[in-house]
Fold each of these.
Amino acid sequence: MNTEELSKEQQILRIMRKTLGNVVKDVTPLGGRANPLTAGTIQEIKECFALISDREQELAEKLNFTQEKPYYADGEKPNANVINFVKPGKE
């Protein structure tokens, strides 16, 4: 399997994941209504997402993609400092 074939498969998987996600959003009921999907169908959707994710990881490994953080074009490293906001107490 060459890089072009792997890239095409990645595109297919990405589109399948997005489409499946949109279907789930479209059929998700609002405000306490019953879900139109059966428990079995929901489980199968979860399994599809897991399989897509696993295959995407396999393809990334074959193409030597690393799981690094995003690269910024300006070369600046992302700020890794977390700022905690504390709500002042009542005095």
Amino acid sequence: MRIALTADHNGIALKRRLLTFLGAHGHAVDDRAPEVRAGEVVDYPPLCEDVCRRVLEGHAERAIVIGGSGSGEAIACNKLPGIRAGLCLDLFVAEIARANNDANVLVLGAKVLSPDLAERITAVWLATDFRGERHQRRLDQIAALERGESLL
């Protein structure tokens, strides 16, 4: 699978580990993270936009974004219509993000996850297929909200 990967200053070490992990599992990874010097702070919204656009334009099938908690990154990613970013801090949520929500962006929090758990979450997220059926109806409703339509 083609995966766009990025991280802010909080996620650089985990990004390096996942880069190796993903490559070892046969994925083509586009490392989009900037070079970060010790003590340097990097704003995450442009990083999120970059990898999300890679997905939306078909240059990547999915993206992974790593921040400190991941909360702000998930918010930023989900501002782009067509992006369904899931902040996954455990295996159950990673499975549901894919199976029920067809998440095309995985968001991880480097300050709240061990590297081992982050790898396991990534593996589950990549291996889980979208279930479709009633879940597709909900994705269609989300798309309507993105277009500014009311569901009420």
Amino acid sequence: MTASLDTLFALCAAVHRGEIEAMPAAAAAVEQEHGPGATRELLRQLHLYFGFPRIVQALNACAPALAAPTAEDAASAAPAQPREAGEQLFRTLYAEDADKVLPHLERLDPCFQSWILEHAYARVLARPRLDLATKERIAIACLAATRCWKQWESHQAIARRHGVSLAVLRQDLRAIEDWIGRASVQQAEQALDRLSS
């Protein structure tokens, strides 16, 4: 059985909603269950979905529960060749879909495509502290919360391609229903039914 991410999801929800008073306890629960440094790493990923200001707010609120940054944190922050590193991870995650998605992103905005590869993939998602399945399950939850359904479809496909079962994705939806709302859960469940048939 894949591990429950309930404590991670609770912190995601508090950050998304800007519930400052709930963040310290949620952060302490993440550190307790997932180990020192897990909260800081989760918050680093969440800026991709909720923006820098919200994460600065969360870092301030969670400060009492945060483990100190490590030397490894600084060493893994900037790969020598971020474009190449980002594209390599992107292609690993998207597999055959990468040849469709990358040109689409370039047509939308070449500058933004570079930021996605060099920052989101090379500097954030490539970080080793949280495993790939955990990062993808977090992405799926955040994308459902922000109703970014096209990106949600892409990331649920990535998660499934890399070993996250439909049963786990459905379990996660039940776990985040109070956060994202029943209507979004139903929309996601219907999409899973359609995409898995």
Amino acid sequence: MKRVLLLSLICLISFQLTNAKTKPTHSASTKVPQKTASLTGTYRTRWSEFKVQALGVNRIHVRFDGSYQYKVRGELTANTGTADGMVTLKDNAATFVPEGTTGCSINLKFVGNKLVVKQTGSDSDCGFGHNVTADGTYIKRSSRPPKFEER
């Protein structure tokens, strides 16, 4: 009786180990395609940054944090602007419209390890501080999934 119980236990453990090795860790519907996943990371210019997180097939979460820095009476000060949202990629490009804005769109184009950005609309149209713009070529500085803090 003990042998049968022991043999049954060994078979059960072997079966579970075999299944664990062959079972995928992510379902096919939630797995991020390699091309889109490679866009995840932090892209920066001297004063501004974009955080990008791949969400699924051609969907990304984007956050812009920008600033315009200048001196007043010898003291460094800055105007800032932020934008956050989800966009759909098509041929490594997307158009991002910050929530709650009118007349603002931010065109994103991923080229290698760079993010080329063209803003349509003024700083105020986009809800940014004076002279803050998303325009520019951003260099990828990190491939780690970014953390999106509440602001």
